[in-house]
Amino acid sequence: MTGEDSHTDDALRVLELLAGEAPVRAYDQLLTRARARARAGAGAQDAGAAPDLERLERARALALEVNALFDRRSRREAELAALVDAARDLTRPGSLDATLRLITRRARLMTTMDLAAAVLLDEDGSATLTTADGAVSALTVGYRIPAGDLPAAAGPGEPPAPFWTADHLADERTTHATALDEVLHAESLQAVLGVPLCAEGRHIGYLYAASRGIHHFTPDEIALMRSLADLAATAIQTARLLEGVHSANAELRSAGLRIRASLSDALRAGSVQDELVQLVLDGIGLDALLARAAAELGGSLAVRGAAGERLAERGRMPRPDPEELERVRLNASATSVACPLSDGTWVVPLSVRSEDVGCLLFHPGPDAGTPGERILLSYARTVALLLVVQRSNAVEGRLHDDLLADLTTWEVPPERLVERARVSAAVLQRPYVVVVADAHGTAGGLAESWAAAYARRHRGMKTLQGERLVLLLPGEDAAGTAERVRADLAAATGVQVTAGACGPASGGEAVHRSYRQAVRCLEALTALGATGRSAADRDLGFLGVLLSDDHDVPGFVERTLGPLLEHDAERFGNLVETLQGWFSAAGSPTRAAEILYVHPNTVSRRLERITQLLGRDWQHPDQALELQLALRLHRARAALDPVPAVPPTAGST
Asked: Alpha carbon of 183 to those of 52, 138, 154, 206, 637: distances in Å?
């Protein structure tokens, strides 16, 4: 092959490399081989080799320029695609905060910078850094920048222009020791590019991209940021307009709600009576009913009985003159019309089937308008109905209290108990908890009065045995019920209260047994010096076993060692045996390993599993005592069991 042919082939090879988008090193290798051939064939016949090499180098340079042009076009296409995606995202409706977060996120990703931030101008010329993407310090979002501290390429009075610097701290064009420098220092930023945000001819802020290293911004990067800023400014203005529309809509909705509320108040008089009657049927109390009436009518209310006694009161009610009140009350009762007192208080008669049951006093508040007469009368009728229902419930409550007294003493003839149980069969078939409470130093009348209200509110029964309260309350959580009774009674009387409980129980015999267990539980708490506390029989551990009638040893063992027994039964494990060995070794894993004939590591692993099953407090003295007693009872039961248990293998854990 002649030299001319080889140089022609090299030129073709350059075109092939260009068509194949080869890397720069491929062109360098082609040029290196051509130079080597020129040196090897140096002579007269290759006198034209040098010009051919120059042409090859020129071809290489042109090819690299074409490659660079292609790269710039590809990058530009990618940037345009990113701009299109950003425009598509920004056209979606969203809040201003969401739009700003999307803008800064797009700016940081498109410029591959370390941080992007949006700064919006305020009315006074200062600025607020509203959002930042890529921030590592707290000195960014919400930071206030005074007017004049923002770097800008344009002078005063000139339209805003992009600003960029490869190194902010070393750039003589920037003014240092400004508020913006605090953010730049906090974020360790050097290169900064800022473009103005302008919409509809108004300058609304800046969009910044910054790097934590020195970076020289190219014209393409600046143009890309300007394009994104144009889209961002329009999106920001659109988001602001949408927020304004949403705010206006919210105000319209609020006005509409107020209008509808006014109409609803006007129409409520026709339906309030049915609602109030339903509340009475659902068991609302007199205090709750007065609270509802005071909130709706906007004033203070009080209920007086037929003899003038105070039954309930809500709000600050002025004290009327007794003679005037009695005279006006009789007049209102005779005419069935509400009559006012001299102090502005209205007296509304309460009657059921022509029976006078009292009166309702209503004193309007200072800011309240005149209440609707129909609504006030509806509340008065409801109060009268509630008083009658409470009187009926009181009679029924006394019957139930007598039944509970008989069940606790068990001193009446069985026939009487059976008859009373038949009357209250539906009640006694439900699960109940028996609570016996001792309010130390409290007069029995006060405690019994509280118990009557508490039992009525919780649909239960109460009786007084000596100085102790006995409550029969629906439910199954004996410990929780005892604690609630103790806390509420202590709050009502202001003295220490000790409470013992047992349950759940259903039926007369079960209630009697539970009462005896609750008494023993209370006496155990007193003997242990735990006055002012509450507990159920199951909470006393082995004391509960000793104090109970049936000495529920299996139940005590199951409650104490249940997780270990279940584990050993399912996995043929040795956790119970390991726990016994650990107690026998006085808490020494090494000595326990000798007793169990296993490695100390095996004992350690088993103790970790025991901790997982029993909790971290199993080595506490109180729980350790429970565990040791349960282990002894378990061994005794196993020894008396006619069917010997198959011992698990020594190596299992």
From this structure: 59, 9, 22, 15, 76
3-state secondary structure of 629: helix
DSSP-assigned states of every residue in 421-482: HHHTHHHHTS-EEEEEEEETT--HHHHHHHHHHHHHHTT-EEEEETTEEEEEEE-S-HHHHH
pLDDT digits (tens, 9 = 90+) for 250-303: 888 888 787 776 566 556 655 666 677 777 666 677 788 888 888 778 888 888
* Residue in the structure block whose two tokens are 């069991």: 641
Given a contact cutoff of 8 angstroms between Cβ atoms, the answer to whether 194 and 73 are in contact is no
Task: Determine the pLDDT at residue 443.
Answer: 58
Q: How far apart are CA 162 and CA 207, in angstroms?
A: 10
Q: Give the C-alpha separation, 7 to 34, whole Å.
A: 8
Q: What share of the chain is helix, strand, coil (3-state, %, to 5)?
A: 60, 15, 25
Q: Which CATH number fits domain 92-243: 2.40.30.60, 3.30.428.10, 3.30.450.40, 2.30.110.10?
A: 3.30.450.40
Q: Give pLDDT, residue 403.
A: 66
Tell me phi and psi for residue 235, to 5 degrees: -65, -40
CATH 3.30.70.270 region(s) of the chain? 424-547
For residue 629 the two structure tokens come to: 């007693």
**Distance of alpha carbon 6 from alpha carbon 10, whole angstroms:** 6
Confidence band of 149 (pLDDT split at 50, 70, 90): low
Instruction: State residue 638 phi and psi, 5-degree precision.
Output: -65, -35
Calpha distance 59→10 (Å, rounded):
10
Structure tokens at 350: 């309460």
Please give, one letter per residue, the 3-state secondary structure of 375-437. Answer: HHHHHHHHHHHHHHHHHHHHHHHHHHHHHHHHHHHCCCCHHHHHHHHHHCHHHHCCCEEEEEE
Among the four given CATH numbers 3.90.79.10, 3.40.190.10, 3.30.420.40, 3.30.70.270, the one describing domain 424-547: 3.30.70.270
Question: For residue 540, how many other CB atoms are within 10 A of its CB?
Answer: 20
**Type of residue found at 565:** L
Contact indicator for 179, 144 with CB cutoff of 8 Å: yes
Tracing tokens 């329009």 back to the chain, one arrives at 234
Domain 553-640 class in CATH:
mainly alpha
Highest-confidence segment of 272-286, 369-383, 534-548, 574-588:
574-588
Positions of CATH 3.30.450.40 in the chain: 92-243
Residue that the structure tokens 């909790």 belong to:
615
- For residue 252, the 8-state DSSP code is H
Identify any residues that bridge with 536 across adjacent strands, giving them in sequence order: 501
Model's pTM, two decimal places? 0.36
